[in-house]
Task: structure prediction
Amino acid sequence: MTKFADLPTLAQVRSSQFGPIRKGDSRLEQKMAERPLTLVDERAFRTAVRERDKHHCRCCGRKVRYTLTLCPERGEVHHCHGKRGDLRFEDRAALLLCKCCHERVTGRVNDRLLIVATKTFTIRGEQFTDARAVVHFEPI
Result:
């Protein structure tokens, strides 16, 4: 019994501990901490883009209207990098364009335009066009 007499009791072991051992964050916790995006609905997103661009086309400067008819002054929100994932409602990656310029940017007509960014932002290691800054349109 002398072997067991030398072992510490449970109370002695607990008193010598400094606290719980903290593990690192899980991959899910790390990803959630990296998410700088906020969730908004589509109406609030479109309103934010329209107000930021002061209801004018960013390409030609035309005052746009909000209508369901297919007129040249129709205001349309263009997603610079598509509607994928978190960028769908990110106003930093969207421009207000008139219908004519939107067709030129998306390539629906032969006279095509390319958006050239002057400033970018990074999300999860990827670079994206920052539409809050000045953007240039170049013919292709």
Observations:
- The chain has a mean pLDDT of 86.
- Strands lie at 75-79, 94-98, 113-117, 120-123, 126-129, 135-139.
- The first strand starts at residue 75 and ends at 79.
- The CA atoms of residues 42 and 89 lie 7 Å apart.
